[in-house]
Design brief:
Elements lengths: L11 E2 L8 E5 L3 E5 L2 E6 L2 E5 L6 E4 L9 E10 L3 E10 L2 E9 L14 E3 L6 E4 L2 E2 L1 E2 L8 E2 L3 E2 L12
Length: 163
């Protein structure tokens, strides 16, 4: 088991997040950029908080620019949220394949995010939370958003598969 980093004042530790994960509302400025343009802007979203993971943000589908969400093939299963479906993110100058996902019919604990869209920050140019550029969760599989107020270590680093 890893040793949690000691949170600095104002930080949250991902090791204080629950398992199974918790869903909470988030009121703050969020942007997503791809291909040199802002493709999503919102001041309300949801965060999924799970032990060892930085938060994954789910944005209202309506905050995405027209035409940037293109349904993509395939699906996956989350033991907590249910079946996910994927989107390519598309702008005139860039395509990020399967870079976003949604739970059309999530489990009862996650009904608030039905149809909301999460974005893989490593697949786009930039995501921000309250003006701060997000660092993608390591490993390329998870969609967590790391900001300065989140303390790790984070699942996804080498050797973390058993966390």
């Amino acid at each position: 088991m890893p040793v949690p980093d000691k949170p600095r004042p104002g930080q949250e530790s991902v090791w204080d997040y629950p398992r199974p994960p918790r869903l909470e509302e988030f009121a703050g400025a969020i942007t997503v950029e791809l291909g040199g343009q802002t493709i999503a802007v919102t001041d309300r979203a949801w965060r999924v908080l799970e032990t060892s993971h930085p938060p994954t943000y789910y944005l209202p589908r309506s905050c995405f620019a027209d035409g940037v969400l293109r349904e993509a093939a395939g699906a996956s299963w989350c033991e907590w949220k249910g079946q996910a479906r994927y989107f390519d993110l598309v702008t005139p100058s860039a395509v990020a394949s399967r870079a976003a996902w949604t739970y059309p019919n999530p489990t009862p604990a996650f009904t608030a995010i039905a149809g909301a869209v999460a974005v893989m920050p490593a697949s786009v140019d930039r995501c921000t939370v309250d003006g701060e550029a997000v660092v993608p969760q390591p490993g390329g599989f998870y969609g967590g958003w790391i900001t300065s107020w989140i303390a790790g270590p984070f699942k996804g680093v080498p050797g973390s598969s058993g966390w």
